[in-house]
From TrEMBL:
Top-level taxon of origin: Archaea
Residue ranges occupied by any WYL domain in the UniProt entry: 581-644
UniProt organism field: Candidatus Methanofastidiosum methylothiophilum
Helicase XPB/Ssl2 N-terminal domain span: 387-478
InterPro entries for this protein: WYL_dom, XPB/Ssl2_N
Cited Pfam families: Helicase_C_3 (PF13625), WYL (PF13280)
Name listed for the protein in its UniProt record: Helicase XPB/Ssl2 N-terminal domain-containing protein
Spans through the membrane: none
Length: 682
């Protein structure tokens, strides 16, 4: 349909809306509407204004048409769009684009088409591909983050070790504790905090116990790993998932399944950049998007989220030390690839006969003196020099006051008691300070530490009712301070209190520098380890080994009787991950499923009962199963399934059936023709 013929068919209300969009006076007489719109459309500023007023969904559909040369069959355009959105959203988008005169309806014989307004097509492409004007990259503040991430993780874990992070009823760290911890980190923002918390949880370093996090024995595996290998491990986990545990493990707080489709091209583009060259983030992202546009890669293009990939660079890649950041007015505007980032992304590792994954304790290394102890109990620490094990130990008996290139810690009677209570004895504390300090430990510090520690164990609380004091002067002092809570005196050094008053008694005594050695059920002050067993069974050695071999896809060969992945689709996107997982589980358990899905041909929702036999990953993801109504084995695209219900009845799986063999036999036909025993959804 001609653009201006379309205008003639519009109602008065529709014309008013169209005039508003193009900035034309809505009181324009109807006979002058077309001339006024023609004039408005010739103005590039008006066109850019109309384009910028579109929603993301509207821009994406317009882009699909422009990639196809400006014309696309209704069915084909609709299929691409509703994979990401719904059919009803599609209709709303078309309505807006037609009202704005950007898209018109057409016919190709008897087939309905959508056509980009011919008078605007070329200029719309230029608008789509417009690269943000680059700002001057001189005089930027450069930030290097690689080592700081490890330090912040250790600081977080030390807070957990000292039981300083309380959880709310929703099992989230309280706002107050969160803010207090963020102030101690090198990078002080909530996103960084959530990033570190998720790493700690997902690697099983911490777990929930009652109203708080507690450390697990997994930390004993993490701490000896070299910093660079630990960063490599985090990188693989965030971007590709881990392969040493069943299934695909990674929280979507990092990379959602939708964005996986474009992760590889983003990382591939970054690794080709010259090390140290400053790149403007917004123009870099836009050029990637334009590359997909020029290649007419509709599937990747429609899922390319520019805001998300800006976050990938300015958060994840910066924090991991893969790039350095250029900051202006507190915002990261540019990046440069680091030597470490180049090595990691290209897997260009130096060949060695026996690559070291863990620190070699058999080799005597020169001990770095990385802290300075003052007489007023302050410790200055070189953050980039201290190793993880030393940093974790330091945080067990000292509180961090400031995280920086030179971090500041303080020691108090309370921090020393918490260290001792967690199994880090006074002798170990003094030995640590002497080992790492660049100066002699001031004598007043040594004396005070011994005095504080001497009070540990002199006061012991037994479950419920007794407090025993093995020091008479101290007993007299305590007796005076606890007068309101003493039920009665039993012996010259034993007093009885109510069980519910133990927390209050402990609080009063600790405020006065007196610390109780607790003897209650579930607590043993003599234990060397305060760590719980981790619930995560991650094989860290094999994960790091696979990275050193240059294997970063994070996916094992998963060809089984229930699962098959065609070569070349290792990174194919799964926009229904929960449904995929449930279908594989139902296949293994031989349980029938009731599926609700959208029929792309008839535009209606349908329900089918299927005996699932497995999942195939090819250009799309498919369920292969036996349709109990049609009495045949067929395949159904998983991305059209909206709901799944696993039933109790168990089916009999065909003998020696594998989805790989079935797909090898019928897969090629499946993508080309519609056969009786194959369900085609296009």
């Amino acid at each position: 349909m001609d653009t201006w013929e379309k205008v003639k068919e519009l109602s008065s209300k529709q014309i008013e809306n169209t005039l508003k969009v193009w900035g034309v006076d809505i009181t324009t007489p109807r006979e002058k509407v077309i001339d006024s719109l023609k004039m408005a459309m010739e103005n590039d500023n008006n066109l850019e204004s109309v384009f910028n007023s579109l929603s993301l969904k509207e821009k994406e559909f317009l882009g699909i048409l422009l990639m196809a040369g400006g014309v696309k069959k209704q069915q084909d355009a609709q299929n691409i769009f509703i994979e990401k959105y719904s059919f009803w959203t599609f209709e709303e988008v078309i309505k807006t684009l037609e009202t704005n005169l950007l898209v018109l309806e057409g016919m190709d014989g008897v087939i309905k088409t959508y056509i980009v307004n011919p008078t605007l097509k070329d200029r719309l492409i230029n608008t789509f591909k417009k690269i943000p004007e680059e700002i001057t990259l001189d005089n930027l503040q450069v930030r290097k983050d690689k080592n700081l991430l490890i330090s912040d993780l250790i600081i977080f874990l030390s807070f957990v070790a000292k039981e300083e992070l309380k959880l709310t009823a929703k099992k989230e760290i309280s706002k107050k504790d969160q803010e207090r911890l963020i102030e101690k980190l090198h990078i002080k923002n909530e996103s960084r905090f959530q990033f570190i918390e998720s790493l700690a949880l997902d690697f099983g370093l911490i777990k929930i116990s009652g109203d708080q996090y507690i450390l697990t024995d997994k930390i004993n595996e993490i701490l000896p790993i070299t910093d660079e290998d630990l960063i490599r491990l985090f990188f693989k986990y965030i971007f590709f998932g881990l392969e040493s545990i069943e299934g695909f493990k990674r929280k979507e707080i990092f990379i959602s399944r939708v964005n996986e489709l474009n992760i590889r091209i983003t990382l591939d583009a970054i690794k080709k950049i010259e090390v140290g060259k400053n790149i403007y983030i917004k123009s870099f992202i836009k050029k990637l998007q334009n590359m997909l546009f020029d290649e007419k890669d509709e599937n990747r293009w429609i899922y390319f989220d520019d805001k998300f990939f800006e976050k990938v660079i300015s958060d994840y890649l910066l924090w991991l030390g893969i790039v350095d950041g250029g900051f202006k007015d507190g915002k990261m505007v540019s990046f440069s690839l680091t030597e470490f980032g180049k090595e990691l992304l290209t897997s260009e590792r130096k060949v060695s006969k026996e690559p070291t994954i863990y620190l070699d304790k058999s080799k005597k290394m020169e001990q770095k003196k990385i802290l300075f102890m003052t007489p007023n109990f302050e410790i200055s620490v070189l953050s980039e020099e201290i190793d993880k094990i030393a940093l974790f130990d330091l945080n067990r008996f000292a509180d961090i006051e400031k995280a920086d290139i030179v971090s500041l810690y303080t020691i108090t009677s309370e921090t020393i008691m918490k260290g001792i209570e967690s199994g880090f004895s006074l002798d170990r504390i003094i030995s640590f300070l002497k080992k790492y300090s660049s100066n002699d430990i001031p004598q007043n510090v040594i004396y005070q530490l011994r005095d504080w520690a001497s009070k540990y164990g002199k006061v012991r609380a037994f479950k419920g009712i007794f407090i025993v004091v093995n020091d008479m002067p101290l007993f007299l002092e305590i007796n005076k301070r606890l007068q309101n809570y003493i039920e009665q005196s039993i012996e010259p050094n034993i007093i009885m209190i109510k069980e519910e008053n133990i927390p209050k008694v402990r609080e009063i005594l600790e405020k006065n520098g007196i610390f109780i050695q607790i003897h209650i059920e579930g607590y043993d002050e003599k234990k060397e380890s305060f760590l719980e067993k981790s619930s995560e069974n991650i094989d860290l050695k094999s994960e790091i080994k696979s990275i050193k071999e240059g294997y970063l896809t994070g996916l094992k060969k998963e060809d089984t009787e229930y699962f098959f992945r065609e070569e070349g689709y290792e990174r194919s996107m799964d926009i229904r991950p929960n449904i995929t997982r449930d279908l594989i589980e139902a296949s293994k358990r031989k349980k029938s499923v009731l599926l609700s899905y959208f029929d792309l041909d008839d535009k209606v929702s349908r329900t089918s009962r299927i005996n699932p036999l497995g999942v195939v990953v090819a250009e799309k993801r498919y369920l292969v199963g036996y349709d109990t109504a049609e009495k045949c084995i067929k395949a159904l695209r998983i991305d059209v399934i909206s709901d799944i219900s696993i039933e109790n009845n168990e089916f009999i799986r065909p003998d020696n059936f594998t989805v790989k063999n079935w797909w090898k036999k019928y897969g090629r036909d499946y993508s080309d023709t519609k056969k009786k025993d194959i369900a085609i959804s296009k």
